[in-house]
What does this fold into?
Amino acid sequence: MGENMPVLTIIFIFAYLGVMVAYFFSETSGNHNRRRVNKIILASMFILYAFVEMFRLHLWGGLFTWCFIGMVFCFIGDVWLLWSFTKGGISFAIGNFILFFFELRFFAAQGLKFSQYWWFLLIFAALIGTFLYLWFGGWYIKSSKKELRYAFPAYIMSVTLHGTLSIAGLFLLKPAPTNFLICCGFILFMISDYFISLHKFKYLKSKTILRLNSGTYFTGLLLAALSYTFVR
It folds into this structure.
């Protein structure tokens, strides 16, 4: 994969990782303005990279347009989260369903039938079943916002759909950079939201968990954006 990676892409990756490391400190600094600027720059980087690659490789109107639209809703969710956890979550949920729809079409385009990957639903059921047991069983701290009692589990379901489908993709899709990057990216995206559940509703003061949330999410979206470069 590295042999075919453009030099500008390599430079972008290092710049992105540098901004992400800076965000690890700004998000725990207590300075909201610093965190806001850092996060918007970081989120803008992955969406702008995907946008440029869509044009460079003439992908507009094709299957990857759906992936890009899903990522746009993630970008909007990132920005909204700085002011409203609920509004940001709604935007992310819309993006998650679009990404799931994209993956279903992506699998079909590569000749996979649902009968070959239906078992991802077993992984989905195991993760969601465990989460709901802990959520409604009182292990998590109840939110002061009553609407989140049901809305947040619904959100977790949305991200777990494309995350667990990506696990199946790692085993079934043809070995290719785009396939690998998309699947790993979406799996990290899913993992990040399980970390945010711990940060928001269990270990509220843990800087480590907050950074794990940001690290897995922004790395996941970086991988998803980089997948465009290798579309053939």
